[in-house]
Amino acid sequence: MRTQIPFVLIATALACSLATTPANARARTFVASYGSDSNPCTFLSPCRNFQQAVNVTDLGGEVTAIDSAGFGPIIITQPVTITSPPGVEAGIVPGVGSDGISITAAAHGVVQLRGLTLDGASGGASGLTYRGGGIRVEIIDCVIHNFSLNGIVLAPENLLAQSTALIKNTTVSNNGFEGILP
Fold first, then answer.
1. Taking the model in full, what pTM does it have?
2. Considering only Cβ atoms within 10 Å of each terminal Cβ, which end of the chain, N or C, has fewer?
3. Would you say residue 8 has pLDDT above 50?
C-alpha cells in the first residue's frame, strides 16, 4: 500500500523553506584584493567587494578583509560586523555624490564597523549615514575623512525604535560640514 503525503503538508514545507536563509549564507565571509564577487566569499575563495560579502553573510555574521585594498561602498540592511584587522587597510571610496556606507537596517542587533578607512576625496557625499531604526551602530578604530558633506550622519527614521551609537577611537576629519551629525 502506498502512503500519500497530503498536498497541504507539501505546500506548508515549501512555504517554510522560502522564508529561510539562503543556502549560500555564511556566518563568516571574507574579501581580498585578489577576490571575485562570483566566489563564495570563503577564506580560500574570497569576494572582491564588501557589498557582495555582506549580501551572503548571515544576520549578525562577520565580514573580514584579508589584505589591503579598496572594497567599494556598502548598503547595510542587516546586523553585521565588518572588520579590517590591524595592519590591513580596508578602504571605502564612494563615487561622486554617494555615501561610503549607508545603514538602513531596522531589525534589532548590532552593525559594527572596525578598522575601516572611508575617503571621500573622489567627491563622496557623506562617509556613513544611518537611517534605520532599532539597531546599535558601533564605529571603532575607523578613519572617515574628505567628504563633501558630513563624516557621520546618525538620523534614524524610526524615532520610536531604540537606536544607539558607539564611536570609539575613530578619526573624523576634513569634511565639508559636520564631522558627526546627530
1. 0.85
2. N
3. no
